[in-house]
Write a structure and sequence with these properties.
The chain is of the alpha/beta class. It binds one RNA strand through helix 7, helix 10, strand 18, strand 26 and helix 19.
RNA sequence: GCGGAUAUGGUGGAAUGGCAGACACGUUGGUCUUAGGAACCAAUGCGAGAGCGUGCAGGUUCAAGUCCUGUUAUCCGCACCA
């Protein structure tokens, strides 16, 4: 027995002790020396909800903590900041219900989150903390808005909101459940309001192109590209018969123009109103329009299984390429928000049009040959040649597309057009708990931005956070705040009372982290040049299309106006899976399956908790929680702790364990980088099992294990490092390097297959190449017996693995 | 509906096209014990066995959990939840 026997593992005291040491020594503060190589690791800053920390937060945090701790051991200057995304709906609703100011609610929630995060021992740069609701922070959120406004990227537009007819308040989508108000069950309709919009569409192409320059996991890139939804096609004008107007459509298939047998305009299309006198069945159309207004876009496309629609009787359009008169319909599967809000329908070559035409007995004209359209539309664009299409006949779809576009442009009836599904960002909320939009409305000058020197525009103190009956923000009830003077003409003017969405503050927080206390600018050039871009950003897949895209948009804009030094904010983006309840369902209060991190840490300690969250399964997959599994991780740490009893004074890696230790170094180092934490930990468990099987290990063996395990379980590894009298502290040690030469043995067991079936396992020298291995195996007596004199037709040898003999 | 992903023992999961089930959890048996929700040891995919086994149906290959085609189920997102 060694002299290092310290009894039982006691995480509670060890963890407190080391958290204090790290804090007292400012161990994880980045160095001001900017000549050192830097690493900026980022996790999505939490929304400090009233429920406290969710077990999901530590999954992402621990993963990035592991990378950051490893980077420090590799010699990097590391920034790993934390902050609070604290504006938002739940806090405001809580404030309304309990009559407590949201600022106080927020402060309390943050306090609790901070305590919980500290309990888990993350190596955050606590001195860089930011809070989106702090005026010193939202000063710069407002400043960015002003720059967007000045660049013409902020504008006002009529946009629908969800309106509860009984509560008389605007609702977030989340508050609308099955088409009715979540709180009162009242009817929800779409009500149009004038709202601030940001022109993210202007950046659509840049946001696509930028993806080629960054290292995001592929599925994130794919989802972003699909969300932006670029398509190339054409806009074509269809003249309305006996009128001066044309219906403009957007189509990705101008090549099928000869097959257009009807048109569909969205129920909101302006021509319905304009031509109501000519529409003989207007009452029917109007009823349909009202019904459509009650559906969300989501429902409109979802319910598309059973297509509905009404013909606009009395209106006909003329197909510009063949002069044919075709009927005009309205249907809610055509959305006013995409393209021109009107389509030409080619039932032979579009699934939705096909279904619609079948239902309403509209003619179907095939214009791409070589296919069967009796039961379904033919939509493949890579085969078939044009038929029934006049001058396009005989061309391939691609050729036809080019030719028809130049024809349309020549004749002045259409143009080639790139379209994006991406829509502009609705930036207004009729809410209290958000950043005030720094604009005044002047009767003479229109919308005028505040002067930058007047920022931040503070949220006024109010008592009642409820919207007005007309759906205005509660800020309209504060006349002394609303009534102001125009920065332009000095005349009386009114402040904008809508506030910004929660997305605003989270769109640039990673910039503020680099210089969080700067009162003169959002961050200094020096700080941004050193720290940006973020080297590695981990977060949830659910943020892929909104937060990630919004923040890339803002960053690209700031780059274009010369504020930030790099065109992309995040060099690398990875993503974690959600932790589900023990029953495999999403954790929620109502399901009663919520696991509180405090309870787990009380029982098994932060190190075991961290270890379990990394071991529980593949990092990028959703996974159910298992408290039994977590206890298993505690047992592993106990076993590690008790290894000290067997440790010898030998300072080097022992001869006995050099192979397994070096294999573990390689495996753990590679797996951490690939975020394959579960297999990295499995490798360390294997190593510990080897140590126990041998009953002895050197101090060098233990030191290596401690260094590998330190990023996951920093407290207990620091403690053991100290107890066995290793020099310094483990976080100061250098990350171990694998000696490849020590990882191979002389002999290796391979499988012998006959006709693909495993028949035997034999040991062979590791050094044999493919041909040598085949020869060696055929000489083997056991193999000869298996072949039993039959003719060997082919031998496939895979060194280190198997030999397959075909007889 | 659209976009993205996933499917392997009783459970969580491993597996550059090359020995399926590493590493754990759980379970069973044992040792020690006044005791065991402790520790340690052993067994543990199914099947008595030949064999059979990675959601389902096909295909490619000497070889498929992995590649291809189709299909089913589940999860995430869908723009005012964060």
């Amino acid at each position: 027995m060694s002299k290092y026997d310290f009894g039982a593992y006691n995480p509670a005291s060890i963890e407190k002790k080391w958290q204090k040491i790290w804090e007292d020594n400012a161990t994880f503060e980045p160095s001001p020396d900017h000549s050192k190589p830097k690493f900026y690791g980022l996790i999505e800053f939490p929304y400090p909800s009233g429920n406290g920390l969710h077990v999901g937060h530590p999954r992402s945090n621990t993963a990035m903590d592991i990378i950051c701790r490893k980077r420090r051991m590799e010699g990097y200057n590391v920034l790993f900041p934390i902050g609070w995304d604290a504006f938002g709906l739940p806090t405001e609703n809580f404030a309304i219900k309990n009559k407590i100011h949201p600022e106080i609610v927020t402060a309390n929630n943050i306090e609790r989150f901070r305590k919980q995060l500290k309990m888990l021992g993350f190596s955050f740069t606590w001195t860089s903390e930011v809070n989106t609701t702090d005026p010193a922070y939202y000063h710069w959120t407002q400043w960015i808005f002003l720059q967007l406004f000045k660049a013409g990227l902020a504008y006002k537009a009529e946009m629908p909101i969800n309106w509860c007819t009984s509560c008389k308040v605007g609702l977030a989508n989340e508050e609308v459940v099955n088409g009715v108000c979540e709180r009162c069950g009242g009817e929800v309709v779409r009500k149009v309001k004038s709202q601030w919009m940001l022109k993210i569409t202007e950046y659509a192409q840049k946001l696509i192109d930028g993806l080629d320059t960054v290292d995001f996991i592929e599925k994130v890139k794919i989802q972003q590209r699909n969300w932006i939804g670029k398509s190339t096609g054409a806009e074509v004008d269809f003249k309305i018969k006996d009128a001066d107007d044309s219906i403009r459509v957007y189509t990705t298939r101008p090549d099928t123009l000869f097959g257009a047998t009807y048109m569909v305009i969205s129920p909101e299309h302006k021509y319905i109103e304009k031509y109501k006198d000519r529409i003989t069945n207007y009452a029917e159309v109007e009823a349909y329009k009202d019904a459509a207004a009650k559906k969300s876009e989501f429902e409109r496309t979802e319910l598309a299984k059973e297509k509905t629609g009404v013909e606009l009787k009395g209106l006909t359009a003329i197909n510009p390429v063949n002069g044919k008169e075709i009927p005009v319909w309205t249907s809610d599967y055509v959305l006013s928000s995409y393209g021109t809000g009107a389509i030409m329908a080619v039932p032979a070559h579009d699934d939705r049009d096909f279904e619609f035409a079948k239902k309403f007995n509209i003619p179907i004209i095939q214009v791409v040959g070589g296919c069967d359209i009796t039961n379904a539309a033919f939509t493949d664009i890579n085969s078939g040649t044009m038929i029934n299409s006049g001058f396009l006949d005989g061309l391939s779809v691609t050729e036809a597309k080019k030719k028809i576009i130049s024809y349309l442009e020549e004749k002045g009836i259409g143009t080639g057009k790139v379209n994006y599904k991406l829509r502009d960002w609705v930036f207004s909320r009729q809410r209290y708990w958000g950043e005030p939009i720094p604009v005044v409305n002047c009767p003479k000058c229109g919308y005028v931005p505040l002067d930058e020197k007047d920022l931040p525009l503070l949220l006024p103190e109010i008592d009642n956070y409820v919207q007005t009956d007309s759906g205005e923000s509660p800020l309209v009830n504060v006349p002394e705040w609303v009534n102001t003077t125009c920065p332009c003409c000095g005349g009386p003017a009114k402040r904008e009372t809508d506030t910004m969405p929660q997305w605003a503050g989270s769109s640039w927080y990673f910039i503020r982290y680099t210089d969080p206390k700067n009162a003169n600018e959002l961050a200094s050039q020096e700080a941004m040049k050193y720290w940006l871009p973020v080297d590695w950003y981990n977060g949830g897949m659910e943020h892929t299309t909104l937060h990630l895209l919004y923040s890339r948009f803002w960053h690209k804009f700031l780059y274009d106006i010369g504020v930030v030094p790099c065109p992309e904010p995040y060099q690398k983006r990875t993503s974690h899976g959600m932790i589900l309840g023990e029953n495999g369902e999403k954790m929620s209060k109502s399901r009663g399956n919520v696991i509180n991190p405090d309870d787990i840490v009380n029982e098994i300690g932060a190190d075991a908790f961290r270890l379990y969250e990394m071991f529980m399964g593949a990092f990028d997959q959703p996974i159910p929680w298992s408290t039994d599994g977590a206890r298993g991780c505690y047992r592993f740490l106990e076993r590690v702790y008790k290894l000290m009893k067997f440790v010898t004074e030998e300072k080097e890696i022992s001869k006995q364990h050099e192979k397994s230790v070096n294999i573990a170094i390689k495996k753990v180092s590679e797996d951490y980088e690939k975020m394959k934490y579960n297999t990295a930990i499995a490798a360390m468990m294997g190593l510990v099992n080897d140590f126990y099987a041998a009953g002895t290990l050197s101090k060098g063996d233990l030191a290596t294990l401690l260094k590998l395990l330190y990023p996951v379980c920093p407290h207990m590894t620091e403690e053991m490092w100290q107890l066995v009298e290793l020099p310094g502290m483990v976080h100061e040690a250098k990350w171990p390097e694998c000696d490849e030469s020590k990882t191979v043995s002389q002999e290796v067991e391979i499988a012998i297959q006959i006709l693909g079936k495993i028949k035997a396992r034999i040991n062979v020298p590791t050094s044999l190449d493919r041909n040598q291995l085949a020869e060696y195996v055929l000489e083997n007596d056991e193999v000869k017996a298996l072949i039993d004199g039959r003719a060997v037709r082919k031998v496939i040898a895979v060194p280190g693995s198997l030999v397959n003999i075909i007889i």
